[in-house]
Design goal:
It is a single chain. The chain is globular, with a radius of gyration of 23 Å. It has two domains: 117 residues, no CATH class; 262 residues, Spore Coat Polysaccharide Biosynthesis Protein SpsA, Chain A, CATH 3.90.550.10. Helix 10 packs across helix 15. Helix 4 links the parallel strand 2 and strand 3. The chain is built from 17 helices and eight strands. It is an alpha/beta fold.
Length: 439
């Protein structure tokens, strides 16, 4: 028979122990909350210009690329200072024709194997082609085919780069945040990483979190690395790790927006989560040694940045996982006590409810705080705010299920599947720069 008094004691000890440990290690979250209230200074306008190569992996994306083509066509930045390359895998891809019609360039990959289907390899081949043909650029700007951006995006990024920032990413907004609970949940996850994690790193350490696209990187950094070497399932995590360990001057720059489409499909989100979780775990181990150290005069700050990069996720992740396991264990013990120890059933029920409510409230509060902090920028409808706060714990816990799924299905960790985009832009501000010119 189960000793329920001992079980309750152990469960309580674990719960309160993890609370104490989390609070002790959560200095970064606390500082991030207060620093999130501080504004990042706008870079002064510069009369110097960066020569950008805008790189857009766009295999078979002919149905949606017109939006980003229009957005890049109406940039306030001088046209002679940026070239746009759409990266495809076939001469027959309709994207190539559309690129030429809009005055852009395209690059067709020729190193196509199952192991080289990721975005990282597409960028690697294109940059290698540019170098081989003596096409020189000061910086590379990375976008996805479903992105659009403010008309002054390149201009503002150039202003920032002229201040000495080597890598920068703008504010990631969303074309379809009000579509369903999955698109809003995904948007809130990215918004949290932007507004708290990335902003905190910029203000404290001159670092940033690269999650997806919308960023530029100085070409000399890629040259020193030996080309674009970030080719895993989560190349953005690899790139962030490289920048952290090589003390590269980074900046999260919320002065200007780019827009991203989120998938409304649960299956697609789940497969993304498997790739993100396992890619994050694997790729954070890469690029921690070797290569040229930038900004050597700020070694102490960089050591602090690396320490934060290593441990900042641990308190939140451990607390969430342990609380979830305690909730599951408590419900199992409650069900067992109903049959064999009814005297303890009410006590076990109370613990089961407490652990379930605590983990639910943890994620709901994070979602609500993120929404309120970015209320004017996200433009969420009131009913979607309510739906997101209620469902965000379910969305976030899928990351745990994705870890478990990938644990038992290792092949899924290395499988990249194309994400179908609709190209539909629901956000009115994004529509202004991403018109559907097919109409």
């Amino acid at each position: 028979m189960i000793n329920y008094e001992l079980a309750i004691y152990i469960i309580d000890a674990l719960f309160w122990g993890i609370i104490v440990i989390m609070l002790g290690m959560s200095w970064f979250y606390v500082s991030g909350f207060f620093l999130s209230m501080k504004r990042i200074k706008k870079a002064p306008h510069s009369d110097k210009f960066t020569k950008f190569a805008v790189l857009i992996p766009a295999r078979n994306e002919g149905d949606i690329v017109l939006n980003i083509m229009h957005a890049l066509s109406v940039q306030t930045y001088p046209k002679e200072y940026y070239d746009v390359y759409f990266i495809t895998e076939s001469e027959d891809d309709n994207v190539n024709k559309l690129a030429v019609e809009h005055g852009f360039k395209y690059f067709v990959r020729d190193e196509l194997t199952d192991a080289r289907r990721t975005k990282g390899f597409a960028l690697q081949e294109c940059i290698r082609y540019l170098k081989a043909n003596n096409l020189t650029y000061d910086a590379y700007m990375i976008f996805d085919a479903d992105n659009v951006m403010d008309i002054d995006y390149l201009e503002k990024m150039n202003d920032l780069r002229q201040t000495g920032v080597e890598v920068a990413v703008g504010y990631r907004n969303f074309t379809n945040i009000n579509d369903n609970w999955l698109t809003s949940g995904s948007a809130i996850l990215f918004t949290y990483m932007n507004s708290f994690t990335s902003k905190n790193r910029t203000l404290l350490f001159k670092k940033a979190l690269i999650a997806g696209t919308g960023y530029y990187v100085n070409s000399e950094i890629i040259d020193e690395a030996g080309g674009w070497i970030f080719t895993g399932m989560t190349e953005d995590t690899e790139f962030t790790t490289y920048c952290e360990y090589h003390n590269i001057n980074m900046c999260y720059y919320p002065i200007v927006n780019f827009y991203d489409e989120q998938s409304p499909s649960f299956k697609t989100n789940h497969h993304q989560h498997i790739r993100w979780v396992w890619g994050f775990m694997i790729n954070r181990k890469k690029f921690i040694k070797g290569g040229k150290m930038h900004n050597a005069t700020s070694k102490a700050r960089n050591k602090a940045a690396i320490f934060e990069y290593r441990v900042s996720l641990i308190p939140f992740a451990v607390a969430a996982v342990v609380d979830f396991l305690l909730a599951v264990t408590s419900w199992i013990l409650y069900a067992y006590s109903l049959i064999y120890a009814k005297d303890f059933s009410s006590t076990m029920l109370g613990h089961s409810i407490m652990f379930t409510v605590s983990i639910y409230l943890l994620f709901s509060i994070v979602a609500l705080a993120t929404i309120l902090h970015n209320f004017n920028r996200l433009k969420m409808k009131w009913w979607m705010i309510l739906l997101t706060v209620v469902t965000y714990p379910i969305y976030f816990l899928d990351l745990l299920f994705a870890f478990i799924h990938g644990l038992f299905r290792p092949s899924l960790r290395k499988t990249w599947k194309p994400i179908k985009h609709s190209g539909k832009i629901m956000d009115k501000r994004a529509k202004k720069v991403g018109e559907d010119v097919k109409k």
